[in-house]
Amino acid sequence: MRIFIIKANHAHTKADFSLKDLPGTSGRIDLLCRSINSAFLLSHGFRKNVRVWLNLNGPPNPPKTIRFEGSEIRPKTINPDERSIAKLIIKALKAGERIKDPSKEHQVLPGIHISNLTFEDIIRKTLKTAKLYYLHEEGKPIAEVNFKGNIAFILGDHVGLSDEDEAFLENIAEKISIGRKSYLTSHVIAYVNIFLDNLGI
Amino acid sequence: MRIFIIKANHAHTKADFSLKDLPGTSGRIDLLCRSINSAFLLSHGFRKNVRVWLNLNGPPNPPKTIRFEGSEIRPKTINPDERSIAKLIIKALKAGERIKDPSKEHQVLPGIHISNLTFEDIIRKTLKTAKLYYLHEEGKPIAEVNFKGNIAFILGDHVGLSDEDEAFLENIAEKISIGRKSYLTSHVIAYVNIFLDNLGI
């Protein structure tokens, strides 16, 4: 299984933004929509072996975390365009407004769950069953990594992870790189998926 | 220089579609928007060494062709989100309504040009200065290709190229592949860009 964990520093935690201007009003939920597209979609196909954690830390009620579970998501739930994926995120955030529990997940649609889990919570949960990699331009080249079993990739948004996040990940996640340039999160996910396909894993 | 030529079979050739439903009303201009994002954008950066030809062949006045010239496009013209890129395409299509000449390009914005050029016209123009590759899952693995000079990649949309297009390209473009699966056009472009970055070309 492939797991992508995306920490979104400013993504709004309430559906108080406009679909007409996602970059300007939502704390860059457009970036998360393209990341979902890259994680799950093939040409006329869907990757069931993928899980995505979107960890939203913007105003007004951080954190909110949405888990997309490829094996449970029904066909045609995830369409390729940003706007329709943004509508799924809005649906999840609306369901999340009522949640008080710090750890319990609530199902929004089959395979889509919302919670108050923190970035650290997600990492600790994932550690139990997968090897963690933090994607960073200064990491070890991905071609030199020996991938086995469940693989989890941690990615930042346009701002990137904080020094505190990086300190937390220090002995937990191996820093790996797909190249020396700094790429858009959605491009990194597309590249990693195709790279792993070619390894046959 | 890297050149991406995308043949969009059904993409509308007039701005008669809705930004609220690009996949359903525009003949999949959403796909072209994500392709522009993948072709040009880096995290906090822009690829000036890229040219993209969008060849639109949908109703009502096919073909319309939009050329995006990375070296001429001004900063902040291309934003990452689909909606703002769709607005650039709308602007180009509106400017294109008046065009009668079959070959002359008209500038819409610095680095963005509209014309009535056909797919074959674009290929013939590009052949003069670049080596052509047709991206197809059954092609030769990209890792075995010896890239040199200007490189042009031909890609289909969700429908793919027709038998006639493939026959036309037979002795003109080498068929190469980034993997055996069929990937979204925008993912292929993201992968190819990162792959070429890593070759240092």
TrEMBL record, chains A, B:
Matches recorded under InterPro entries: Alpha/beta_knot_MTases, TrmY, tRNA_m1G_MTases_N
Q: What GO cellular component term, any one, is given? A: cytoplasm
| Localisation | Cytoplasm
Its EC number(s) = 2.1.1.257
Q: Where does S-adenosyl-L-methionine bind?
A: L135, G156
Top EC group: transferase
Q: How does it assemble?
A: Homodimer.
Role, per record: Specifically catalyzes the N1-methylation of pseudouridine at position 54 (Psi54) in tRNAs.
Please report the name of this protein according to its UniProt entry. tRNA (pseudouridine(54)-N(1))-methyltransferase
Name the source organism: Thermococcus barophilus (strain DSM 11836 / MP)
Q: Which gene encodes it?
A: trmY
